[in-house]
TrEMBL record:
Designated name of the protein: Flagellar filament outer layer protein Flaa domain protein
Pfam families noted in UniProt: FlaA (PF04620)
Alphabetized UniProt keyword annotations: Bacterial flagellum, Cell projection, Cilium, Flagellum, Periplasm
Protein location: Periplasmic flagellum
Domain of life assignment: Bacteria
An annotated GO cellular component: outer membrane-bounded periplasmic space
Organism: Leptospira yanagawae serovar Saopaulo str. Sao Paulo = ATCC 700523
Stretches assigned to coiled coil: none
Amino acid sequence: MLNTKKFTFFLGFFLSFTSLLSLPRPYDPDELGRVQILRSALALDTHYLLYLVEDFEGDRPWDFYRVDSFLAQTQFAASIAKSDAFIEETKLLKESGYPNLQNQTSFLLQSFVENPRLDHWEIRPKEPILLPLGMPIQGILWVYSEGHHINLSMGLSQKKSKDLYFDLGTLNFVGWRRLEFKINLPKENTRLIQSMSFPISFASFRLKSLASQKKGEFHLYFDNLCFVIDKRTFSYPGSEVNDTWGNKR
């Protein structure tokens, strides 16, 4: 009976963590629960690394690269999420190798929608942000929106490969929200990573206005962009990439 209970517990935990990576998916209002699942998974398997790509504390220059609007500005603002989930995730980041993380500012984006069906924007760091060796399998980004019908995607770059873009969904919510998104790299990109000569870099955010978006000024805030990196590929010489990891239901 005891063994059955243990098996049921670990099966439930495994299914919870694998579902963490099965995105895009409907929003889960239990953000604190998602952070706690991530904490438990990182503690259970040391092959997973929580990597802070950008804390948006003003140390790295960013700018709009391609815009369709006469108004497009970026700045760092003293506005951050105050939820229990954000506080807990900040603690987890500090325990995961970022003890000096401050979380005093977020990244403010401002622009103007003139043609809702066509307007789009691209925001880049001045230099691409190099990721550690390993397979990025999941992303996390905190976003503040005011119900905008604007779609957000994220771009990764790699030498000898076309840029890759991953959908984070439509920002039609109000307030701060913790967005999770799956990173499923094509096989050719995983082979380049395995060569240890062509790591992945974070390249950009893309915003695209939907036809239902109202004309006029809008603003968004971003904070704490993180990736979960699977390092097991590099633990043993000659090991193979598990291309189906995270796709189980």
